[in-house]
TrEMBL record:
Gene3D superfamilies: Glutamine synthetase/guanido kinase, catalytic domain. Residues 24-255 form the Phosphagen kinase C-terminal domain. ATP binds at residues 27-31, 92, 126, 177-181, 208-213. Catalyzes the specific phosphorylation of arginine residues in a large number of proteins. Is part of the bacterial stress response system. Protein arginine phosphorylation has a physiologically important role and is involved in the regulation of many critical cellular processes, such as protein homeostasis, motility, competence, and stringent and stress responses, by regulating gene expression and protein activity. NCBIfam families: PRK01059.1-4 (NF002194), PRK01059.1-5 (NF002195). One of its GO terms (cellular component) is extracellular space. GO terms for molecular function: ATP binding; creatine kinase activity; protein arginine kinase activity. This is Protein-arginine kinase. InterPro entries: Arg_Kinase, ATP-guanido_PTrfase, ATP-guanido_PTrfase_AS, ATP-guanido_PTrfase_cat, Gln_synth/guanido_kin_cat_dom. Pfam families: ATP-gua_Ptrans.
Amino acid sequence: MSLEQFMNEAISPWLKEEGPDSDIVMSSRIRLARNFDHIPFPILAGQEELEQVVEFFKEEYEDHSFGPYKDFEFIHMSKLNPTEKRVLVEKHLISPHLSDHAKNGATLISQNEQVSVMVNEEDHIRVQLYFPGFQLEKALEQASDFDDWLEEKINFAFDEKRGYLTSCPTNVGTGLRASVMMHLPALTMTQQMSRLIPAINQLGLVVRGIYGEGSEAIGNIFQISNQITLGKSEKDIVDDLKSVVEQLIEQERNARQQIVQQNGIQLEDKIFRSYGVLANSRIIESKEAAKCLSDVRLGIDLGYINSLSKTILNELMILTQPGFLQQYAQQNLSPDERDVRRAALIRERLNLEI
């Protein structure tokens, strides 16, 4: 897949697939932080040393494949304009830090966009591997195999007592961040999320917004991930997260059932009002669009709306972000211009489904 395709296709190929519990869990991710053992970490490395890391990945892995992950595309951040960087962030292929702050950063992205390797982010290597729905164990298995593949050519910075060494102490040990992206509208409507988030934090997990650390939970989408990487095995970290996510799935389903039973007509009205806003608005801000898309997605899951697929909503959640809107327009847009374009794009896309 070329850079142009990464930029122009809002929804990654893997995200078009259905996964377990996909009515609530949108995706599962495993991220591994690694560093070369003989090169200073990015926060201390000089330009020449960082360039050495970049050149290594370009030479060794560009156009290569591993298992189902074919034809890795190498992209240097310096070759991208701000809009193109933002698009990759909106698709979760790179982090905001790699986009905005990394010195001499780059990325490798597989053809199906299921694997991305961020180069010279906070660490030399940050591998991300995604699966649709609730598939943490499968994601861990594939990420471990990919890690072994990299280790055939790379000596990782590793300490027998501390494990993998990383720039940030919170990643030392396994270097693993396991996370799931969850759509939790009913728990939000019933004011239960404000109570659950502190309880989840006490279990060594963290609840963040759609783009991870420092981001806001828009459209009732929350990212749940581990905070502790030292003193636990990779399996223990995934098992702990899996246990909490299973409870959240059950509570979300119970909350949906409760709302349907107690306020069914009000919920149905809310869902179709949101659909009406999306289908007819001429101007719409990103937060309002995300809220309405969340309502419509819930309507699909509950069987109120049968004419749309969840795939179209996954696409629109990304397609209506500022970077994609400007990429489609091929020009910088003011906030007001983006709101007009966003509304037109949603109307056009929904009409294609009818």
